[in-house]
Amino acid sequence: MAITSLSLLFLLLALTPLSQSAVFVSIDCGSSSDSYIDENTIKWIGDKNLIQNGESHVVKDSNAVSKVMSTLRAFTTRKKNCYSIEAEKGGQVLLRVSFHYGNYDGKSSPPSFDLHADGNYWATVKFSSNDEVARYESIYVVKGDHISVCVAQIHPNQFPFISAIEVRSLDSNMYGHVDSNYALLVRLTVAYGSNTYIRYPYDPYDRKWGPEISDNGLIRLTSDAPMVQVNLTDNPPEAVLRHAVTTSRTSDPLILDTQITSSVDAPIYINMYFSEVTQLDSNQMRSFVFTIDGEVASKPIIPPYGDVLQLYLTNTTASENTTFALVATKNSTLPPLINAMEVFYVSGPLTDGTYSKDVEALASLQEKYSLLQEWTGDPCLPSPFTWDWVNCSSEDTPRVTALYLDGFSLSGSIPDFSSLDALQTIDLHNNSLTGSIPESLGNLPNLKELNLADNKLNGSIPTSLSKNSNLNLDVSGNPVLCSSSKLCTPKNKRTGSKSSSGSSVKTKSDKLPIILGVIVSSFFVFFLN
Question: What pTM was computed for the model?
Answer without folding.
Answer: 0.86
